[in-house]
Design goal:
Helices cover about 35% and strands about 20% of the residues. The protein is α+β, with helices and mostly antiparallel strands.
């Protein structure tokens, strides 16, 4: 189900955040080049605070005195599930000396934003980038539309009738009406459909009437849908953020062990 997929992704994000915090727990302290802690002879740094329009070429120019492996191909800008820049990047440098030079650029400005530079490692970089790739693949292969302007009383059955010629995945289970914190309809819904062709069919119903209101239909992504459903669940549970931080986990800790640790609390 969508909610099960969301929880799985939330767990992956949680573990990624834990890895980041474990490696960067002293971000605000004096920075120490990754070169002194890496043993695989590959030198990786993480940057945070990049302008959202930053390109690999701009990052290379920012680190103008550093030798970056494969030039701009050694810059890996982290993207959101929707394909937008997250403001972070992993950069692989050619040597220990280049890694040390990179830390001299900590808190320097790129455009109107200051860029932070942190130590990282190959394992963290590859794990993070793999998660982003999986998320993007899921988004690219999903077919979702967003409806706006629904009557406040609209039900999944009525939405199915409105999209009568569209193949909706899972029938009513593929329709997700978003709610306000007090449980009322926002007038919007996300609908999972079977194919890109079905997306095009759904779009033909844009600005048709449902009752006395006309409904707009837009293309959407799986990431947008999951974010909306996640917000709905967080509001319904009265939670803020929905994320906790763990410190002092064993080095051999796995996702399964974390789930077992929280078993019985309904966290995932």
């Amino acid at each position: 189900t969508v909610r099960a997929q969301i929880r799985k992704r939330q767990l992956k994000v949680f573990v990624w955040r834990w890895l980041s915090m474990a490696n960067h727990d002293n971000d605000n302290q004096e920075i120490e080049p990754a070169a002194e802690k890496q043993t695989d002879q590959r030198w990786v740094i993480r940057t945070r605070g990049l302008p959202y329009d930053a390109t690999p070429e701009k990052v290379v120019n920012f680190f103008h005195d550093c030798n970056i492996v494969s030039d701009k191909d050694g810059v890996h800008i982290k993207l959101t599930p929707e394909g937008n820049s997250s403001g972070e990047a992993y950069i692989e440098l050619a040597s220990e000396e280049d890694a040390k030079k990179a830390f001299h650029h900590h808190n320097e400005h790129m455009g109107h934003r200051y860029v932070e530079v942190f130590q990282s490692n190959v394992a963290e970089m590859e794990w993070c980038l793999n998660q982003v790739n999986e998320s993007q693949q899921a988004t690219e292969t999903s077919c979702v539309v967003r409806l706006r302007g629904l009557p406040w009383s609209a039900t999944p059955a009525e939405i199915m009738k409105f999209l009568h010629d569209v193949d909706i995945c899972g029938a009513e289970r593929g329709i997700h009406i978003t709610l306000t914190p007090d449980g009322r309809s926002t007038g919007e819904a996300f609908v999972e459909v079977a194919s890109e062709e079905q997306v095009d069919k759904a779009l033909t119903h844009s600005k048709e009437n449902m009752g006395k209101r006309y409904v707009e239909v837009f293309r959407a992504t799986k990431g947008q849908m999951e974010w909306a459903v996640t917000q709905e669940e967080s509001k319904g549970a009265g939670n803020i953020g929905g994320v906790v931080r763990l410190r002092g986990l064993p080095y051999g800790c796995t996702e399964e062990k974390i789930i077992k640790f929280f078993s019985g609390l309904g966290c995932f």
